[in-house]
Structure formats: structure tokens, C-alpha cells
Amino acid sequence: MVFWSSTSPILLGLLSLLLLIHPINSIRLGLVRRSASTPELHQFREAPAFRNGEECGPTEADCINVAMTLDANYLRGTMAAVLSMLQHSKCPENLSFHFLSANDAPQLFSSIKSTFPYLNMSIYGFESNRVRGKISKSIRQALDQPLNYARIYLPDSLPEDVQRVIYLDSDIVVVDDIAKLWGVDMEGKVVAAPEYCHANFTLYFTDMFWKDPILSKTFKGRKACYFNTGVMVMDVDKWRKEGYTKKMEEWMRVQKEEKRIYHLGSLPPFLLVLAGNIKAVNHRWNQHGLGGDNFEGKCRSLHPGPISLLHWSGKGKPWLRLDSRKPCIVDHLWAPYDLYRKIWLTINHSDDDSHINYTNNSKQQNGIRYLNDY
């Protein structure tokens, strides 16, 4: 197999010479994934336009703010997440997307815009240096990336007129109207999220934390329960006024400079500051853990009960497992939202017949067909 992109005329010339010297029955050439620093990223199909129904109110008055991080490594997941929200929303034009990017990467903006040309969105730069010196090594490298901590700084990154936002990770799909989550009564809390009080809360912190006579009293007077920070409704106005970013930074300082009290990246600072003091949301809004654990990413089954949001938290990501031809059953629930487009070029060559076939999974145009795995 030889890899090729449309910007490789030298390779095509070498290939032509090779065919003259060594007749070949068939060669497949596929589009290579480029790194984030290169001009081109994954190629995506343009999503259909989703329009409001007659029952929808004015887009400004009924605006639903959704915030996500934007990263080349998770772009395919972001595309699927956005499509799922638009597809299941009764008023898709009321959705306003706010993307945080750690790099000045116009190609990310271009990819989103070309895939969703009608999308109401803004992209904000996240200054990685603001958090880089505060990060301590965790159990998985992906958790150590500055952009993973952007949710702590989200209220400071958004415009002042944005006072409420739904924060979502990129490895989710929404299978319900996101307006239902937006409409939750916060009851004066700064964060609303599904809460899991059956989980062993002590496991989220080290023995050093629990044995410390002062630190171990952190949760005194609170019914501290685990919540996943990949799906949160945030009162960003209250967050700013009450200085929650500073509160979390202080715990990051303790972890970095004094003693190791946790292992799980940006999650523990949220738990230390907010566990037991959030608005609990129905579990249907975060069917999390579908990516398996943080070490092996083994397959997991769905939890019983209704589902509004599927979340592949953990090491395993559905697009990677699907591409590897070793998907979990739940990954097929993500596949219908995948807009990634793979292009294949097949060259057939023999002594009496030589031709090139380009093909597309829905129709053939000048012999061109775009093949999608799923």
C-alpha cells in the first residue's frame, strides 16, 4: 500500500515510473492523516443544514451556549458531537458553539466551517502557559495536556455576556434535545451534572490525602459524590464572581508543590471544590465510561435506563476502535454521526489494460468514489 494526497505530484511521477518497470495488478492509495501542524487535517463531508421549526423562539432570546475544546487529535469526535446535537435539536439554529483552541490553528476553524457552513460559532484562544506550570503528571498522558484543563478557565475565556454554558467533551454524542439539559434549574449552584454517589469516592485521591489530618477534612459537612466533568451546565457568571478558578488553582498548587494528592488530571480539583455542592442531573445525560478504563480501554456495556447522551470517557475512543477494525458494540452507536471521509485511489494495471478508478460510496463521478468505512 502506498499513501498519497492530492498535493503529491512527485509521488505520482515516481509511481508512473514504477508501473513502467514493474507491472502491477492493483495498488490502493489512501489519504494520509496529517499532523496538526500541517495545512490539511481530516477531510469531512459537509453536514446538512438544520433549520428551526415554527415553534422556536428568536435565536438570540432562546440561545443555548455550548462550549467545547478544539484539538486536531479529537476533531473527528467534535464533528460527530456537533452533528448529533444539531440533528436531535428542535431548534438547531438556537445553538451557539464556543470552541477553545490551544493553538493558533486556522485550519481547525476552516475544517469546522466547511463542514458546518451555517453554524453559529466562535473560537477563542486558550493560553496554555496559564496552566502548563500547574500541571502534575497523571495516570494517562492525554490527561496532562493543557487543553484538558481549559474547562477550569472556561468562564474567563468566554465573553462577559455569556452567563451560562453547557460544557461538553469531544468524545460524546447527544441523542436527545440538548435544550432539555439547558433548561435544568440550577437552584443557585454553579455547576449542574449527573452525580454518582454509589462510586467509591476515596479512590479519586491518594492515601497521602486521606491520611493528612487537615486535608482529609476537606469534605466535612458535604455529601461528596463523584461527578464527571465532561458534561456540565455551568453558571459562568456565578463562577467568575465567586472565583472558582482560583479555588481550583490552589488545589493544583498543593498537588504540584506540597504532596501528591490525586492522579486524574483536571477532575480532582473540581471534586475538591464542588463535590457535594452541585445540582444533580438525571444520569441519562452522561452515559459515561464507554471508552473503558484509563489503562486498557476495554469494552463496556451500557448502563440500564434511558439515555440522552453517550460519553466515551476513558482510553478507548470510538473512531480509533472502528478504524482498527476492533470496535466495541457501543462504538456502532457513534458511527452514524461520523462525518470523516476517506478517499481511495485504485490503480489497475496489466499488459493490455491500464486504468485508474476513483470511487464514491453513494455515486460515481468521473470514476471517483469516496469510501467510508462506516
Annotation keywords:
374 residues, alpha/beta, Spore Coat Polysaccharide Biosynthesis Protein SpsA, Chain A, 2 domains, 8-stranded mixed sheet, 5-stranded mixed sheet, 11 helices, 25% helix, globular, disordered N terminus
Briefly characterize the structure.
One of its GO terms (cellular component) is Golgi apparatus. Residues 1-26 form the signal peptide. The protein has 374 residues and is an alpha/beta fold.
Description:
Strands 3, 4, 5, 6, 8, 9, 10 and 11 form an eight-stranded mixed sheet that branches. The relative contact order is 0.14. Strand 1, helix 1 and strand 2 form a beta-alpha-beta unit. The chain is globular, with a radius of gyration of 23 Å. The longest helix is centred in the last third of the chain and has 15 residues, at 244-258. The protein has helices spanning 9-21, 75-88, 106-115, 129-132, 150-157, 178-182, 207-211, 236-242, 244-258, 267-274, 318-323; strands spanning 2-3, 26-30, 64-70, 95-101, 121-125, 165-168, 172-174, 191-196, 226-227, 231-234, 279-281, 309-311, 342-349, 354-358, 370-371. It is an alpha/beta fold and 374 residues long. It folds into two domains: 2-34 and 341-371, no CATH class; 64-337, Spore Coat Polysaccharide Biosynthesis Protein SpsA, Chain A. The two termini are 21 Å apart. It is built from eleven helices and 15 strands. GO terms for molecular function: glycosyltransferase activity. One of its GO terms (cellular component) is Golgi apparatus. InterPro entries: Glyco_trans_8, Glycosyltrans_8_dom-fam, Nucleotide-diphossugar_trans. Keywords: Glycoprotein, Glycosyltransferase, Membrane, Signal, Signal-anchor, Transferase, Transmembrane, Transmembrane helix. Pathway: Glycan metabolism; pectin biosynthesis.
